[in-house]
Amino acid sequence: MQLYEYTVPVVIVGGGASGTVAALAAREAGAEVLLIEQDARAAGTTSMSQGLMCAAGTAQQRALGIEDSADTLFADIMAKTRGQADPVIARAIADGSGPCCEWLTETIGYPFALDTGFRAVYGHSRQRMHGWPGHGGDDMVQLLHQRLAERGVDVLLQARLVDIHADGDRVTGITVERPDGSREPIGCGALVLASGGFAANHDMVAKHMPEAATACHNGHEGNRGDGIRLGAALGAALGDMGSYQGYAMLADPHGITVPPGTLVEGGVLVNRDGRRFVDETADIAGMVHPVMAQPDGIAWVVFDARIEELCAYTLEVQALRDTGAIRIAGDAAALAAIIGADAATVAATLTATSPDPFGRDWQTPPLPPYHAVKVGGAIYHTQGGLQIDADARVLRDDGSGFANLFAAGGAARGVSGPSYWGYLPAMGLGSAITLGRIAGRSAALV
Ligand SMILES: Cc1cc2nc3c(=O)[nH]c(=O)nc-3n(C[C@H](O)[C@H](O)[C@H](O)COP(=O)(O)OP(=O)(O)OC[C@H]3O[C@@H](n4cnc5c(N)ncnc54)[C@H](O)[C@@H]3O)c2cc1C
């Protein structure tokens, strides 16, 4: 039996969005909390993100006259996932996202505003992207950690979870490893696994999503699936392990995400031969595979000054401008020269035809001068993990729950269905933050 020098009522593993929000919620509920983070500076996939959270029925939406509700978000989740999302988790997220977003804004002091530049697309029937204007995911992580410090939550950095100890259905504590290889057992009254997904674990990706095994990974290297593997070793059930967000527009070689608005507002994807190959507005995550299937696995996002201006408020477009990733071509022939394609082919591609050969609800095609960014596809983050219930309690295969083990964020099963086509924009943080709050509250009640 594992002995502990000290025991903390609530231990949370992971200092990204889900872990910090879980810690804030557990602390608010009166628990003493210790947050464990493997890195010297907490960052996680959250810090790489745009910091956008989808949430329904918020004060921010109401202030702009947008009618939305938990039921509408639930319906959108089930429609996008073709009815294959776990309805219990979907309901918990749909019901919890709006109140969670408002709690973060009003009580925690996180300045969420509705991102009015992000249309209701890719499965969202309402505008419901909430972000901190002018700030991205790294600012989100740092502000949430500042709030932890203000509320007296202890954070142990450079401590990697390497083992979970349990007695039957009850977790008694964990072992963490420090950078010098020393190991330390820590007892806990309840444990929240918020250690992210497994997109950085090539073996797990190859096993659960073989079609993405050769895709490059554009997420945090700490997402090795530690919490998922250790939970499974205790007997936890796993769900939707084939689920992930791929993304088609990672600037090559700059490594900057080209925001989806470039396509939504009228841009197109053109391959090395100067041809379109897909309805660019059909999906956000599923587009990765059509791009990977093109010659050299690359494409060019082609837009124009009007579209760029509409997206210029995003940090990503500002970074693309700063790094010179956006190439400008006066006409189709100049664009063809940049792409290395035939000029007549590019000119024909940029002339909209009706009906569109790919079924796109075509708007005005981009107009010269053309703006173009070379892009490749990548896997950004996984969405499957430990099976949980509406309280974020980790379940076994037989449906029974652990007494004091909870999971949230990338470590838990999300609501993106079984594969790459069920992801709703900003559901990574939508679920991480909403389930983080639920998990923290549940852990405090143990
Ligand atoms: C480029 C990019 C942009 C994105 N943009 C958005 C967006 O705008 N909106 C959106 O909803 N989603 C977005 N996502 C997805 C979103 O970032 C993730 O879904 C979300 O951040 C997951 O949060 P998390 O707290 O579960 O994981 P993370 O933020 O990855 O945090 C997990 C933490 O656990 C730590 N950890 C891991 N293993 C251990 C261990 N064994 N011991 C101790 N600590 C450990 C890690 O170091 C990390 O700090 C984006 C993803 C990428 C890659």
Query: Distance N terminus to C terminus?
Result: 22 Å
Rounded to an integer in angstroms, the radius of gyration calculated over CA atoms is 22 Å
Uncertain stretches: none
Percentage of residues in strands = 15-25%
CATH superfamily of the largest domain: FAD/NAD(P)-binding domain
Task: Describe the 3D structure.
The two termini are 22 Å apart. This protein folds into 2 domains: 7-243 and 383-444, FAD/NAD(P)-binding domain; 245-379, Alpha-Beta Complex (Flavocytochrome C3, Chain A, domain 1). It has 446 residues and is of the alpha/beta class. It has helices at residues 17-28, 44-48, 59-63, 70-80, 87-108, 137-150, 202-208, 226-234, 261-264, 288-292, 305-311, 315-322, 332-339, 343-349, 427-444, and strands at residues 7-13, 33-36, 53-54, 113-114, 129-131, 154-156, 160-167, 170-177, 183-193, 216-217, 238-239, 244-251, 268-270, 298-304, 327-329, 370-382, 385-386, 393-395, 401-407. It binds flavin-adenine dinucleotide. The site of flavin-adenine dinucleotide (FAD) has 44 residues, from helix 1, helix 2, strand 7, strand 16 and helix 15. Residues 13-19, 36-39, 42-46, 48-53, 160-161, 194-196, 218-220, 222-223, 226, 257, 380-381, 409-410, 426-430, 432 line the site of flavin-adenine dinucleotide (FAD).
